[in-house]
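Retry 2 of 3 after timeout on previous attempt. Resubmitting structure tokens to design endpoint.
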């Protein structure tokens, strides 16, 4: 009888182990996307890349629709978008949240979906 109880316990433990391993971190390690509105300011700003010696390069200020914070990004950061100094933009972009982002990089990327407006300032 003790042998059956030990066997049942072993089977139960194996079953639980398989169940827990199926809920592994693999599901969390996937990029995911969302479509958002992004505003681009009209002036060139300094952007400080992670990988250089502290020397700024030309950048652009961007702000997501649901944020009040402007962040500088490299001029070529939005795939498919070409920044022109002196113009303000509203863009519809696909934001990809990177599951495995570089330690010295950003946690997301932007890809132009549609130019909503471009206005000279």
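Retry 2 succeeded. Sequence:
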């Amino acid at each position: 009888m003790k042998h059956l109880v030990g066997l049942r316990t072993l089977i139960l433990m194996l079953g639980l182990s398989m169940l827990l391993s199926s809920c592994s971190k693999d599901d969390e390690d996937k990029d995911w996307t969302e479509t958002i509105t992004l505003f681009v300011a009209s002036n060139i700003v300094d952007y400080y890349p992670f990988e250089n010696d502290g020397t700024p390069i030309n950048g652009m200020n961007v702000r997501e629709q649901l944020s009040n914070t402007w962040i500088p990004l490299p001029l070529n950061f939005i795939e498919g978008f070409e920044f022109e100094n002196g113009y303000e933009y509203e863009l519809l972009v696909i934001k990809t949240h990177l599951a495995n982002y570089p330690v010295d990089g950003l946690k997301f990327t932007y890809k132009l979906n549609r130019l909503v407006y471009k206005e000279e300032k």
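Attempt log closed. DSSP finds one helix and six strands in the chain.
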